[in-house]
Amino acid sequence: MSATEIAAYLQQASPLLLDVREPWEFEICHIEGSTNLPMGQIPQAVEDLPESGEIVVICHHGVRSQQVIRFLQGQMTASLINLDGGVDAWAREVDRDMPLY
To answer: I want to staple 5 with a disulfide (CB 3.0 to 4.6 A). Which of 1, 56, 89, 99 is the partner?
Structure first.
């Protein structure tokens, strides 16, 4: 989903916002309400993620999040949504006050 589609979706739903960037990236900018779990820690943390429901997976440009989604698809039944373009797209299309890096 695009950044604007997810922004509109968040007005009516409360999925888990899972940011898979590194902590230093998360400190620069993040979508309010998101949880930081770096991509490298996902395999060890799968059991801590909800089995069902919805998870929006977020990274910088949408590549790492898509890789995480491919991994998680075989691990759970939750609906997995990729933020196309990542926080970069969010900053350019939704929250123009968000820092870019």
So the answer is: 1
Domain that holds residue 60: 3-93
Domain-embedded: residue 99: no
Q: The pTM is what?
A: 0.96
| 29 counts as catalytic | no
> Given 3, 29, 56, 59, which residue is catalytic?
59
> What is residue 40's DSSP assignment?
G
pLDDT, one tens digit per residue, over 49-95 is: 998 899 999 999 999 999 999 999 988 999 999 999 999 999 999 99
- The total of structural domains in the chain comes to 1
pLDDT of the residue at 51 = 87
In a domain, 100, yes or no: no
